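Supplementary Note 3. Input sequence used for the single-chain structure prediction.
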Amino acid sequence: MDRMERYTLAFAVTVTVLRLSSTPGAALAYLALAAFSLLGTRQALQALALLWLQAMLSPGLAPEVPSALRYVVLFPASASIILRSGLALKPLPAATLLMGLFLVMHSLVFSTMPEVSLLKAGVWTLVTFAILSGWSNLPPEAADRLSLQILAGLALILLVSLPLVASPLGYLRNGTGFQGILKHPQYFGPMVAILGVWSLTRYLSGQGRPWLNALLGPLCMTAIVLSESRTAGLAFLLGLALGLGVLPFYRRTPLKRLAPAITAWTTWVPVVAALALAVVFLPNIVDATEHFLTKSGRSSADNLLEAYDSSRGALIDRMLHNIRLHFPFGIGFGVASDPSDLIVIRDPFFGLPVSSSVEKGVIYLAIIEETGLMGVLLAIGWIVLLIRKSADGGLVVFSVTVMALLLNLGEAVLFSPGGFGLLPLLLYGWTHATGVNAGTSR
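The predicted structure, written as discrete structure tokens, is reproduced below.
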């Protein structure tokens, strides 16, 4: 760790302590992050990563703060990056601007709540474009170091959270789903799922410390089960499966080259041992699976499809109803399926909307409902560009990208830069830049 990294670590600890201390301390932490983001592109991206943590902390540990405070960091950090970026645009940042322009125009013409749609479209475009541009403009070595800092931060969140398994504070939201130091099990589960896929694919690719990556994988799987986040569990399994099953065909490269550790005895001995234990404790595993699918009995489901239908079925039905009524132009970006469900928080000075959360679950269906045919085509193009470029970066970045996108099957986070979605957006920036650098070096 060099001197600059030590200073950054000290700053991260300081703002986290401030965030935990009191409401005035939390406000000071946000202001400190905003000032830190002005120092450079790397610092701005680090500030956004720390902002994600600040916004996700459990109310049992940190005082509640106004949601508008996140803009104190989002806007200066994005501006700091964009002002330092060159005029040459990579395809994905350019596609982001095109998508953003469409969303703004669509909001003005078709949205049932234009001011809400404009707010969400503007913030997503600004933050996403800045993140993609920022990572692309970092030297490859600096980007790698920054990605490892984020990885270490996620691992630290998991490790600090584990002692709360024995405390009611770890289950504060609903009493059964483990949330660790974060504010919701549906944030903690996806976070550790990302960490698990990242760690296991690093192990299989021969990156980093093998023992540490191998240890984090089972810890993350256990944490997913404790969180009762079925979306995280599904995305974790599919992310690994698609990474190992699809990438070799796409790259026309043997799996052994992409994941050299997959044939090592150090990989298969623990796997065989785990399978043997699974046979011995099969009844316990069946009970644990049922416990996971039913969220400790709070929902009724015999399999994953029933679990999905019980949690997202009503939301999907409402979206399908709106699609039938409003296709091909949609109801408006970021607008609730039922307008009566939308709670808009406005700033006290100008009356502008600063927060309006909606729950839709499946973002890919929500895009059709909200933006119609043209929005779907642009979103598909954006996602395809991201996946293709991440595939050039290798197994780790491809698997992390696919897994983070799969989270949107149950948690609509793709267009949520002010909430949990800020973490996946930061990871998309890293995976896109890694793919670009890999393609340039070939």
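The mean pLDDT is 88. Residues 363-392 form the longest helix (30 residues).
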